[in-house]
């Protein structure tokens, strides 16, 4: 178990006021906190909605909430009430960064929007996580991960070729928007180091969803053909797909001709790499249906787990297809510090970005109370 540690993060000394809810904003705040920022999460009187997004629950609080609100202290304010807005302004005066995801116009209606406060707090970096931005044809509309997956084309290219559009099985748009918010905050802090002034940063779900469309957007820009679903297979290269073996399926990720030749040698078909239909990456992609039949016929003689080890040793990217439980229990997951255990039975995913001199630290379990910024 990891005990609360000293603050070793690159953002030590940066104070973040996180008044966001649900996922994108809180995820941003947690990342900033993991890397040393002092994060105070201000929730409405009823708490963040995700406290109830269960089961499972731990001590009455949903695991969903606990997975996004580590390294923060929490308090509650009703920003619709004038007295609590005064308390909020006192917190803003102490903050370097504000993260919020209120519907566009809400904070402005209360008189505490960016335009109203930017001159009063000129060094403040104000980060808004929104659905569609504040203007344009969809401006100010609320955005939700699944709906944005549908609108930005993600669902249209996810799923089996013969099936219908399918939502990605995790909130990928919300999460990448949180990551983009972190990037925006760090860019703005770097600029403030030079200019002395903060600025408004916006990360919109819609923009983030579109940004994920590689290589489908690049393909469409090049040939004008509407991208189609390809199941587990890559749209541009092959074999980059889940393939059946004599036991469980494996995922093969062959990215070049050298890897394909090494793969063919490993499965006892060295001549296949010289077949004109498969010798080059482009021809393998065009002839993928026939190639898959030949490969799976040969793979039926192999144990999938053992074959993965042999392929990786030969420099061929391959992997077993693991469940979430097996992935979290994998020895390499522990080696990389990707499961964090803290006091009170807290377990969560670790920080994926590793820095040699200023590593992430885990100082506050979710639901740590506090009413101001404190030095870690």
UniProtKB/TrEMBL annotation:
Keywords: Transferase. It comes from the Bacteria. The keyword Transferase applies. InterPro entries: CoA-transferase_III_domain (IPR050483), CoA-Trfase_fam_III (IPR003673), CoA-Trfase_III_dom3_sf (IPR044855), CoA-Trfase_III_dom_1_sf (IPR023606). SUPFAM superfamilies: CoA-transferase family III (CaiB/BaiF). The keyword Transferase applies. It holds the Pfam family CoA_transf_3. One of its GO terms (molecular function) is CoA-transferase activity. This is CoA transferase. The lineage of its organism: Bacteria, Pseudomonadati, Pseudomonadota, Betaproteobacteria, Burkholderiales.
